[in-house]
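Risk register update: the risk of archive-format incompatibility is retired. Evidence:
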Amino acid sequence: MRPTLTLLLIVFSIHVPSVNGADGPRRVEMRVGSSLVSTIPTSPDTVIFDVPIASPNGNRSVWRLQQTVGKVLKAISFADPMNGYAAAELGAVYRTTNGGQSWTTVMNLGFPYYWYGVQAFSAQTALVVGFQNSSGAGIARWTDNGGVTWTSDIVIDSNNWLLGLRFADALHGIAYGNLGYVYVTQNGGRNAEDWTKVMTDPELGWLAGNFTFRTDMNAYIAGISFCHSTDGGYTWAVYPSADPVFDGGCSFPDLLHGWTGGGQISSPVSGWVHRTTDGGSRWSGRILQTSYPIRIVQFFDANHGFAAGGNIYSSAGGIWSTADSGDTWGLDINTGAEMSAIDAQPVSADSTDVWCVGYLPNFTGVIYKTRVARHEPADVDESKPITAIATRVSPNPSSGSCRVAYRLAREGAVVVQLHDVSGRLVRQLLEGVYPVGDYSPVWDGRDDAGRELPGGVYLTRITTPTGVVAGRLVLAR
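Archived output:
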């Protein structure tokens, strides 16, 4: 048993960055003792200056700058390799339907809205969470038509901001807020009453960075303390942070191997990564040390992963990668931006697309993408006439959420639909042009209008340029 944390000193104060002058955005400083580790906004205005974009140094993964936007990007989520959403301060949400090649603004509310978390469930359905800076309320909004319309504000907590979001599946989600609180749903979180407020840390230590919520209901979140839940976020074991200062962001690809980031923006400005191989009972020393805070970590298995971060006040930031569990690291790209969120989607058995977002010192948002290939790609038999093979629907029967898994052997247009037994189309899960790869879009048991469907037999239909593959699933209510 690890010792409990017995003393915390957290000081909050208002700081106005001199680079923006009196009209610039004020930001609340988050400190541990004398160490300044992060800031969050408290006023609406942004000022855009001309700042050059850094280019890759070619050490490891090749990252490409896909787009810049005029807002501070704080979150990104993809439902599949083509369809994703990015959320930003000042009430902006962006959508892509082509893997990030282009992004469209689908919400732009302005002050006092700040979106700090997003979850893409399908091309059409997404959830954003954040806060209303005038009232101080933690809020959420849903779309079920690709961002054409959104619900009105869903007030999750009238007195606490929401700063991060992750769903393990279509029903089980966790959003985290200030002062050690999380908000948990097990029925999809469509309404305010669907969320339960839970205290992770009795010392009210704040949480930071990305976090892990696995389909087996294990959740890991870091900050002043390291917190672990085995029941989907309803109860938490609390341990000291891996680093003596604090942790920021964590990733657990399995129940044993995990990594946390962290850092500070007071002198000396620095960042770090720690590793565990026993589920968080013990942590290594700093296996990566950088000149700016590491704010997010993302690992795909026990060896391959990324760490990213930055500090806008020193115009520094970048993305690092490792292929040996963190024993050695390479700087993939010097972005000059404070990298704030990361997401990934498998595109085949051998490769994964990864997106990372952040913002420059002029508060311009940046979106980067890379493709990671950990093994040699499998050969494709070009003589085979069928381009898609439906592998399975799981779980089947389903109580309300399942994955429709299939493999696309050649690039082309794909449509994935669900029909009832009469043949009526009830849900279009996926539509677009996709590269070769394995796909598994999630169906949440609802129709295209977001209405819960009754139990019964439903038919899957996967259409490709050279054929149609059908399947059957049972929805048990």
